[in-house]
Design brief:
This protein has 154 residues and is mainly α. The chain is 67% helix and 3% strand. A two-stranded antiparallel ribbon has the order 1-2.
Length: 154
């Protein structure tokens, strides 16, 4: 279960890093190099980049801490005990600051976005094929995640 939390935390850290380092990245994912609009939601392009950046950051920090604690009995356990709370606290600070900044700028902010009749998603209509692909990809990902983290006989 801690591994799943670590993967979710990696995605959040990656999104935080990408949004701070490249604030206009979402605008870049909505058009091609020639300026034509792309017909898929930008989140399909942003999620993989955020996850990869976050995975690299969290694992590098974890292994650097583990290397510094190499003389202890279990250095990776110590590194995880330092890195996971550090990144959790960092995410809590970043996302709470961002939430309260949004509340201050727009007092009528709602947590649930209203959907139109056409199921608009960032201005693009989501087709049934995209929804089927999204659910199949999510199902396969969840299956592989639980199959990978399943440990027999402790």
């Amino acid at each position: 279960m801690l591994g799943i939390y670590y993967l979710i935390l990696s995605g959040l850290v990656g999104y935080m890093t990408c949004s701070l380092a490249f604030p206009k990245l979402k605008n870049y994912t909505q058009t091609t190099y020639k300026g034509r609009k792309i017909g898929i939601p930008s989140e399909f392009l942003l999620f993989p980049s955020s996850f990869v950046v976050g995975s690299i950051m969290t694992t590098w920090i974890t292994y650097i801490i583990g290397y510094l604690a190499r003389d202890s009995k279990s250095p990776l356990k110590l590194a995880n005990m330092v890195a996971i709370p550090f990144f959790t606290l960092l995410c809590l600070i970043f996302y709470s600051y961002r939430y309260y900044k949004g509340m201050k700028e727009n007092k009528n902010i709602s947590l649930v976005r209203s959907q139109t009749k056409d199921q608009d998603f960032n201005g693009y209509r989501v087709t049934k094929g995209e929804l089927v692909y999204l659910f199949l990809a999510a199902f396969i990902s969840v299956f592989l995640m639980f199959y990978t983290f399943y440990i027999i006989d402790n």
